[in-house]
Design brief:
This is Acriflavin resistance protein. The chain crosses the membrane at residues 123-142, 149-173, 179-203. One of its GO terms (cellular component) is plasma membrane. The chain is mainly alpha-helical. Helix content is 57%, strand content 10%. It has two domains: 2-63, Multidrug efflux transporter AcrB TolC docking domain, DN and DC subdomains (2-Layer Sandwich); 127-260, Multidrug efflux transporter AcrB transmembrane fold. The strands form three sheets. The protein has a two-stranded antiparallel ribbon. Strands 3-4 form a two-stranded antiparallel ribbon. It has a two-stranded antiparallel ribbon with strand order 5-6.
Length: 261
Amino acid sequence: GTVKEAFLGIVASRYRIGGDEYDLRVRLQDLDRNSISDIRNINIPSPMGHQIPLYQVAEIEFGRGPVEITREDQERKVTVKANTFGRDIGSIVEDIKKRVTNIRLPEGYFVKYGGRYQDMEEAFSGLLWALVVAIMLVYMIMAAQFESLLTPFVIMFTVPLGFIGVVAGLLAFGRTLSVPALMGIMILTGIAVNNGIVMIDYVNRLRKRGMEFGEAIVEGAAVRVRPILVTAVTTILGMLPMALSHTEGAELRAPMAIAVA
């Protein structure tokens, strides 16, 4: 504590100027802390209450060491930070992992990736579970509505076709699969299921009127394709400004708009 106070100082008081508050810090003069001999002669308190020079209890030498020591879960850690620009975090971390694998770490050392990458991984995991739960709930609702366990599968088989469009759209716009894109996929799943319900419900009504299965499908598709296309076109046109935006924060909103459109 004494050596730290001699170099970094100790706050003796504070004063205000307007709305700002400043510390009054007391420490050794530059001339008294410029060499090893100055450090060796710094007096520190002994357990007996006497002042003794530092060189009597410690060896002083130049060396390299951390500016500060931080711990997490009682383990010492060193944090390396960097800002990203022009690339997604996922690909940057993958490049870092390739470089780190070539580094032989001492025994007991390990590398952990945190920050925005860790947040993204946790969000991905949470959204994937949410997507699975949403699909299960949609299935149960449709099974109750159509009073059939097989009919909902006919509708839900249209959802993977939408995923093909999502991948194509992200590649075309140079975007990557991210948390906003996953949110867009969840929205797209709801839209695709809704369109399927409109189609299948009308086909079932035609079947109840006595129409043959094949004729009912052709007639239902011909009648319902127009409202489905109108819904799709209005959704695409509504999402285009967000998908093509280059304003601040567009990198967060655009993937979701591309996935939905």
